[in-house]
């Protein structure tokens, strides 16, 4: 199989193209965005956003969707220790949380001395949502993503919190192409609707996201001053794995069950990978993560290839957790068959997820932009 000569993406990766040196378009795209990224400039921009939030003197300066994983833990650390913010941490209990994640959350909250809450959606309903997603879409992560959004929006609104800060990184996180993975709310709504859930049941849970707000909602929020901005912290400050690791272990007393230290917050991540592997043979989510780390000089190509080969063997095998998983959701093995025929692509196409701002919205935002420039 032909692979990019710089990262490890293979020729069957969606929309991949190679140049004459065998380097893929994803690597070129990464270079364009990150090779000469100016962290000094971006951190100054970040400080402006954070200071304006502090000036609002709300009960909380920011909301952090907190999974108990490494990136969001580091976000909590930076917000508290470096930026001196008063955060509200919200954890969506997706029913799949690992013991390690819960333990880490509890100790983090204590060490960092921050406010935190677990949000649990009606478990019986949530399990029915998961079942529908597995039976129809061949995956269950989109339901969890909708839940994380649910917890975020409910608490942002409740306390009128001006910023939401996440640890999602365009630089080092895996960026699954649409053909492989989709958590878009439109997909989730259609999937659940096809499974017979009522409009109310769906809309109570799959709340409109920021990018779905229409013109009226945007204006209303601005006038009522309960608008918020979303900040992905790794897009403003350096996100170095080794440094994060050091902070987590030494200062935050973090523990983990495996060396990969990725996604340890979900106890069924192996099932997710296994199902995707049945849907798209030899598809390894981690190949994208590894490729990002290679581009960022945090991993060598040889190390990545070695790790990938190990995963190829593991992820095509049925994971140990599968029986526990099926049992928990009230499913049987047959429900995970015919994976290749199940996909989000049966519910949504690529054009629909691309955000198009309407002309009216663009025109309406002009006075606001002028006002912002004048105020600066
Ligand atoms: Zn590449």
Description:
A five-stranded parallel beta sheet has the order 3-2-1-4-5. It contains 16 helices and five strands. The protein starts with 24 loop residues before the first helix and ends with a helix. It has helices at residues 25-35, 39-55, 70-82, 99-112, 123-137, 141-159, 185-194, 199-205, 215-224, 241-251, 269-279, 286-295, 301-315, 322-329, 350-353, 359-375, and strands at 62-65, 87-93, 115-120, 163-166, 229-232. It is globular, with a radius of gyration of 21 Å. It is 51% helix and 7% strand. Helix 3 links the parallel strand 1 and strand 2 (87-93). The chain has a single domain (37-281, 316-362), classed as HUPs (Rossmann fold). With 376 residues, it is of the alpha/beta class. The mean pLDDT is 88. Zinc ion (ZN) binds next to helix 1.
SSE layout and pairings?
Layout: H1 25-35, H2 39-55, E1 62-65, H3 70-82, E2 87-93, H4 99-112, E3 115-120, H5 123-137, H6 141-159, E4 163-166, H7 185-194, H8 199-205, H9 215-224, E5 229-232, H10 241-251, H11 269-279, H12 286-295, H13 301-315, H14 322-329, H15 350-353, H16 359-375
Parallel strand pairs: 1-2, 1-4, 2-3, 4-5
The chain binds zinc ion.
What's a concise summary of this model?
The chain has 376 residues and is of the alpha/beta class.
């Amino acid at each position: 199989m032909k692979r990019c000569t710089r990262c490890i993406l293979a020729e069957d990766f969606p929309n991949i193209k190679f140049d004459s040196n065998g380097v893929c378009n994803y690597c070129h795209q990464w270079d364009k965005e990150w090779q000469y990224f100016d962290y000094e400039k971006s951190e100054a921009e970040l400080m402006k956003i954070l200071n304006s939030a502090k000036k609002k003197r709300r009960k909380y300066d920011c909301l952090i969707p907190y999974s108990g994983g490494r990136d969001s833990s580091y976000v909590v650390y930076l917000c508290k220790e470096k930026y001196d913010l008063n955060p509200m941490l919200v954890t969506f209990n997706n029913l799949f949380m690992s013991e390690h994640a819960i333990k880490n959350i509890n100790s983090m909250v204590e060490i960092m001395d921050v406010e935190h809450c677990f949000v649990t959606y009606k478990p019986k309903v949530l399990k029915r949502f998961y079942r529908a997603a597995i039976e129809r879409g061949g995956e269950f992560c989109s339901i969890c993503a909708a839940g994380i959004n649910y917890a975020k929006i409910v608490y942002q609104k409740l306390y009128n919190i001006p910023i939401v800060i996440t640890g999602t990184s365009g630089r080092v996180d895996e960026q699954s192409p649409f053909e492989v993975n989709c958590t878009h709310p439109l997909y989730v709504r259609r999937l659940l609707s096809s499974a017979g859930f009522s409009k109310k049941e769906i809309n109570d849970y799959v709340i409109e996201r920021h990018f779905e707000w229409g013109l009226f909602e945007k204006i209303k929020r601005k006038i009522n001053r309960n608008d918020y901005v979303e900040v992905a912290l790794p897009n403003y400050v350096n996100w170095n794995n080794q440094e994060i690791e050091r902070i987590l272990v030494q200062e935050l007393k973090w523990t983990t069950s495996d060396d990969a230290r990725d996604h340890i917050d979900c106890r069924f991540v192996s099932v997710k990978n296994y199902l995707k592997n049945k849907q798209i043979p030899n598809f390894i989510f981690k190949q994208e993560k590894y490729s990002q780390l290679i581009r960022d000089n945090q991993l060598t190509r040889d190390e990545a290839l070695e790790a990938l080969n190990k995963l190829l063997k593991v992820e095509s095998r049925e994971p140990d957790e599968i029986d526990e998983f099926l049992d928990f959701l009230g499913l049987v093995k047959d429900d995970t068959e015919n994976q290749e025929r199940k996909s989000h692509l049966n519910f949504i196409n690529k054009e629909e997820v691309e955000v198009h701002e309407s002309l009216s919205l663009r025109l309406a935002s002009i006075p606001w932009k002028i006002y912002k420039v004048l105020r600066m």
